Amino acid sequence: MISIKTPLTKEAIRNLKAGDEVLLSGVILTARDAAHKRIYDLIKRGKRIPLNLKDAVIYYCGPTPPMPGRAIGSCGPTTSSRMDAFTPEIINLGIGGMIGKGDRSEEVKRAIKRHKCVYFLATGGIGALLSTKVKSARPILFKELGAEAVYKLDVRDFPLIVGIDSNGKDVYDTAGWKKK
């Protein structure tokens, strides 16, 4: 396992290869479909994004309310392809990485390679376990969206796999996981 911290540096990203197992620590931001659409719409209208996304990691997740004594409820990954229409424009803002599940479009893969960022895979179905890796959570943007708001999460040793590295190598292609 490779331990890395946020914000992601270009050197850390460059050293990651598709298939690497990673433990991520630091601040990550959640954003699902509704938040992505709002950010995308701001970009298209030439408005300021009320969030610094430079070198940030965006987790495609809609967390559930916390149980007593926990920072967050279940926080499993959302299917990443649902964000693909918005992702290239958001990658242009300088994000370091994304976390989700499933494969990505060719356009997103080209944007990852062009901007030298990384796409991580989180295991679906283990949202309760992943929540134990979250030390704090709070909504910071689009709070009216509830679970689809942008949350700031502080994570420790969040287990991930590099799905697409900064050179565009994709585990779905190399492992034969692509749908035919």
Structural summary, described in words:
The chain has helices at residues 10-15, 33-44, 87-91, 106-115, 127-131, 171-174; strands at 2-5, 21-30, 57-59, 97-100, 118-121, 134-141, 150-164. The protein has 180 residues and is an alpha/beta fold. The chain has a single domain (2-8, 21-172), classed as fumarase (Alpha-Beta Barrel), CATH 3.20.130.10. The chain has a 5-stranded mixed β-barrel with strand order 2-3-4-5-7. It has 6 helices and 7 strands.
Largest sheet: 5 strands, mixed, barrel
Mean pLDDT: 93
Number of strands: 7
| Annotated CATH homologous superfamily | Fe-S hydro-lyase, tartrate dehydratase beta-type, catalytic domain
* CATH topology (level 3) name: fumarase
Number of domains: 1
Amino- and carboxy-terminal Cα gap: 31 Å
Structural class: alpha/beta
How many helices? 6
Mass-distribution shape? globular
Q: Give the C-alpha Rg.
A: 15 Å
- Percentage of residues assigned to helices: 10-25%
Order of neighbouring strands in the sheet with most strands: 2-3-4-5-7
CATH architecture: Alpha-Beta Barrel
**What percent of residues are in strands?**
25-35%
Low-confidence stretches: none
* CATH class placement: Alpha Beta
SSE topology string: EHEHEHEHEHEEH
Please name the defining characteristics of this protein.
single chain, fumarase, 23% helix
